[in-house]
Amino acid sequence: MFQSYEREVEAIVGSIEDRLDQVQDFDSDARSNRTLLKQVEADLTQVHSVLKQMEVEARSGGGDGKSMKSAVRRHKARVRSLRDTFEKVKSKSERDDLMSSRGGGGYDERDRYERVTARMAESTDTLLQSKRTLAETEEVALGITEQLGSNRQTILSAHGKVRETGGMVGSAYRILRGMQRRATRQKLLLWFIMFCLVIGMLWIIISAFKKDPEPTASPTIAP
Question: Quick one: which of 28, 65, 94, 103 could link to 61 by a disulfide (CB 3.0–4.6 Å)?
Fold first, then answer.
């Protein structure tokens, strides 16, 4: 899907470049220029919509997300440049139309018109600069948003590892407690066996001392 969006952007951008070249051709008439400029404006609106769809695809692109985002930034920079060119060409075309419609005016009127035109050109440059600054700010904001999302995933992963480690520690603690209980039982059993052996040995010794030897009958000698 991302590749199809990219091909569509390339096609629209190529169409915009061709039409802007036609507008800047000295042989083109004013009516054709107005028609071409309207088509360029519509193409710019369309390509911005496709770029937004590309951004959505890039954010959910998984492992290829980084290369997709790089491609989106590259296309957006190209479209911004075309937008600036469009604004300049449109402004020049409108000035030329106005100049041709007032071609019969006097010198003062033409001088006044040129001053107004210069101020309009300056205002146009200021507007374009503001648009570029806004676009750069948007890029920075998107970068910060992506970085925050990445940091959030890192924090969640670390939290999961901490919980997993805590579970392992608890399991190890339970195992150690079980080993300690078994060792205690074994010690008690050993002490009980030793106590029984000691009691048995004492009983045997005491029994041996208490048993009296039976008296032997002495033989009688006949007179």
Answer: 65
Q: Can you tell me the distance from the alpha carbon of 57 to that of 1, in angstroms, rounded to the nearest whole number?
A: 8
Residue among 84, 69, 73 at smallest CA distance from 132: 84
Structural domain includes residue 47:
yes
- Domain of residue 9, residue span: 2-168
Domain membership flag for residue 71: yes
| DSSP letter (8 states) at residue 102 | T
Q: Which two tokens stand for residue 98?
A: 């106005």
Q: 3-class DSSP state for residue 222? A: coil
Tokens 């989106």, residue located = 72
On whether residue 91 sits in a domain, the answer given is yes
Does residue 211 lie in a domain region?
Answer: no
- In sign, the C-alpha dihedral spanning 81, 86, 89, 92 is negative
State the amino acid at position 19 in one-letter form.
R
Q: How many domains does the chain have?
A: 1
Six-digit token pair at 50? 């496709």
Rounded to whole angstroms, how far apart are CA atoms 71 and 22?
28
- Model's pTM, two decimal places? 0.48
- Residues 199 and 3: their CA atoms lie apart, in Å, by 91
Name residues of the chain where pLDDT drops below 50: 104-107, 217, 223
Write the pLDDT tens digit of every residue in 62-87. Answer: 557 778 888 888 888 888 888 888 88
What is the sign, positive or negative, of the torsion defined by CA atoms of 178, 179, 184, 190? positive
